[in-house]
Amino acid sequence: MKEYYSIGEFAAIFDMDVQLLRYYDARGLLVPEQRNQNNGRRMYHFDQIYPLATIRYLRRVGCSLKQIERFVLHTNVESNLDIMTEQADALRRQCQQMMETVDVIQKKLDFVRRETPETCGFSVKQYPARQFVPIGEELRLFTSELFYFYPLVGFYEGSKKWFGAYLYDDCHGDTAPQLLPEGACVEEIPAGRYLCGYHCGPYQSIQDSIDALFAAGRERGFRCDRRVVTLNIIDQFSEAHPANYITALEARILE
Fold first, then answer.
1. Cβ 234 vs Cβ 246: under 8 Å
2. Cβ partners under 8 Å of residue 236, min gap 6
3. Paired strand residues for 164
4. HSE-up of 75 (CA within 13 Å, CB side)?
5. Would the N or C end of the chain have less CB density within 10 A of its end CB?
6. What is the residue extent of each domain of the chain?
7. If pLDDT is split at 50, 70 and 90, which confidence band does 21 have?
8. Each residue's pLDDT tens digit, 217-251
9. Topology annotation, domain 4-75
């Protein structure tokens, strides 16, 4: 077994890039025991394998470089145990957040499978009050985390349109929905009978389908609310081609 290793040999032991060892050297985390005065070549003593293993372990469990510096440069068992306790707590929080994200993604998958229609005709459905979180105008969608995790509900009334994040049925009640920002304002789509149809295709032509929905309502003798509720079923998060998008359309029947 050799006593000294070049930077390339040392990096190869851990299957890591030599640039990372240079970075650790510059930060003072792992300074090579010897350096050639003429060419600056770094040489690491075999015993330096252990502090490098420590650094690799701390990175593996997600410690920041500042935490690693505290751990490596300030030898104090109690302090180091505090760092590991902090990181364990942080990992628990991350795990909880990831599980909440998985749960919301699964609910969205279930929603898409449940709501995708076999046919795209008109029908009348009775709905309870349904909840959503307002997001605002279309351009605000792309900076809202809710847009990426919940089905998009839209409200079209004449030339106006605005949007929100549709909350799943099991989010009703006293339990706060997951992944909602603190202080989120939850509103309701009114309960009632709705004339329902579908828009199949890109959003640019959705007004044609809304006009067809109102025409179907007049044919049936219904007086419908001018505000149409739209609900994305197949959208950009499950289909790459806008021609295949499916959007539910609902106009509340005024009794």
1. yes
2. 242, 245
3. 134, 153
4. 2
5. N
6. 4-75, 112-253
7. very high
8. 999 999 999 999 999 999 999 999 999 999 999 99
9. Multidrug-efflux Transporter Regulator; Chain: A; Domain 2 (1.10.1660)
CATH topology for the 112-253 domain = Multidrug-efflux Transporter 1 Regulator Bmrr; Chain A (3.20.80)
Tokens of 208: 């044609």
Q: By CB neighbour count within 10 A (0-12 exposed, 13-18 middle, 19+ buried), where does 106 fall? A: exposed
Q: Are strands 152-157 and 160-166 parallel, antiparallel or unpaired?
A: antiparallel
E-assigned strand segments in 167-245: 187-189, 192-200, 224-234
Would you call 193 exposed, middle or buried from its count of C-beta atoms within 10 A (0-12, 13-18, 19+)? middle
d(CA 178, CA 101): 8
Average pLDDT, the chain: 90
Contacts of 43 (CB under 8 A, 6+ apart): 4, 5, 6, 7, 32, 33, 34, 35, 36
Q: What is the C-alpha to C-alpha distance for residues 210 and 248, in angstroms, rounded to an integer?
A: 10
DSSP state of 164: E
* pLDDT tens-digit series, residues 108-146: 999 999 999 988 899 999 999 999 999 999 999 999 989
- Which one, of 143, 176, 225, 179, lies nearest residue 213 by Cα? 225
